[in-house]
Design brief:
By secondary structure, the protein is an alpha+beta fold. Helices cover about 70% and strands about 10% of the residues.
Length: about 675
Amino acid sequence: MKNKRLLYIHLFLFIPFIAGAQSKLIDSLLNVLKNEKVNSQKVKCLNELALEYENNFSFYKAIAVADSAIRISDIMLNENKDENAKPMILKAKAKSYQTLGGIYYDKGAFPEALNNYFSGLKIYETLKNKTGVALSYNSIGNVYDAQTNFDEALKNYQLSLAISDSAGDKLSVARCNNNIGNIYAEQGKLDDALKHYSISLKMKQELNDKSGIAFCYNNIGNIYVLKQNYDEAIQNYTACLKLREELNHKPGIAATYGNIGELYLRQKKYKEAEQYLQKEKLIAKEIGYKEELQAVYYRLTFLDSAKGDFKGALENQKLYTLYRDSLNNEESRKKTIQTQMTHDFEKKEAVANAEHKKELENQEKLSEEKSRKQKLIIAFVVLGLILVIVFAGFVLRSLRLTRKQKNIIEEQKNTVEQKKKVVESQKLLIEEKQKEIIDSITYAKRLQQAILPSDEEIKKHFPESFILYKPKDIVAGDFYWLYYSSAEDTVFLAAADSTGHGVPGAMVSVVCSNALNRATNEFHLTTTGLILDKTRELVLETFEKSGEEIKDGMDISLIAFNKKSKTITWSGANNPLWMLNDNTLTEIKPNKQSIGKTEHPQPFTTHQITYTDNICIYLFTDGYADQFGGPNGKKYKHKLLQEKLIASGNLSTFKQKETLSLEFDKWKGNLEQVDDVTIIGIRL
């Protein structure tokens, strides 16, 4: 009765706290709670109220209400003597755990969410409630998916799908197919992902589940983005946004704005991208959606970089890091692993207790049988006791020695096991950190590719051409650049080698690519030498803003084709230009200075070039010639590269690229690639 009085006090204090809600449904539920007796119906009403608070983004109120529902269930279970009523109470309590887990999940508190989902699963398994068990496995899979533990997520989704399918639950089957599609998408299995999304969409449409249909459209759009089918992607995103706006589902609206913004960023439509990303940020801030804030600041970092706003890019990068660490810190991961281990242990313990109970029942039956034979046994024991006493001394001595040896072995075994656990824990931590780094760099690669001209754009201006592009790491310092001036009817093409490679080189390449864009777009320069002069000035200006002495820059070979006058101009910073005509290779030497901080800088020379038809022109960086390999592990060198180009000069540009690629891989063999490789070939 004391617990019940405390609960009434809690509800009395709690109701004024939540009475200020504007929702009519909330007011209605509060009125029901004032008059409802303590029973399973009251628990159900509290669960509905918690969900409604969550829908209004009042997370703390939602947690308090769901927690009250669980406490009422405990009081009812302790005081109710009717065994037939307990299954209904337990089912209501399991639903409360599911509700509370969902609230913590939406807040990004993953360990707390997982703990509540496991508590609900345990009750549903006890009740043999297939629908509840399937829902719990699906929710647990969602938490693992959010923490990028895709193997555990897929395992739980497949368990949920099997149970839902056997129970004929179409809604759950549709949900599971959608979630499995998410995992395959994360693993790069795009066709498998699209297959499961399509199954889910069809079932959601049959059920008229608008929220589920919107999710399917969103996910299908993501797959088409990865397949670079942007028209299909925007159609699915638009359909998703329309449904989510009808439902006023703000987290979903924010996520869809982010997807559309990133799609425009990929297409270099920076104005449209910024409009959608700012909408995404506004809604995410309004509802405290940490995951979406992390995503939008990451996208804005690359948008600002592409626009040349490096101060804004730095600020957004800091905010992205802040939210990423908040959501995915080490303490959160430790709590998640601990919760999983606790659940597994309790499950095994329950099985062991059941087996132990059965064993005790069997022992009681055997005890009755033994009691009838006890007198006969006592007689034999008395006779055997004399022999036992004789050998007792020997047995006791042997037992003590054996026990001592056993203790030593156990201590050694425990020490080895502890060391093994420490090593395994450290290994898992390293693997997790390595995966996080690789995932971030892989995502950066997709965004870096957005600054490179597409194959279609290059083929439009140079039908007979090839680009051999082999980054040393996931992202590269090498990049190639194309710009078309419609006013001058001139096409500019460059192969550039930024300082370093990998992530540092990629960051420098963004700065240098942006400087080239500004020199041509903003300052309207059309002379190659002047373009390189202005690019050097803009790169130095960017690096000087940091207040530190930065000597990074790039080597570049820049060529311009004027279609009106049919003339070619060229300028180079450390990288030459090669021209092949009638098996004769001619080299035009560059200025021996880089784009960046240089002692005694000089204006770059603009070379006027005359040419005949069927001439081949090559722009390149030094990565190919600097590669170690061959039978003696030496550099390939420029001379050997010239001979290879002369030998393949009569082939099509496609065959030239294939020949150069095979030659590079053969020369490198099992050795590590030493630098990024870029070669551009054009036949006029």
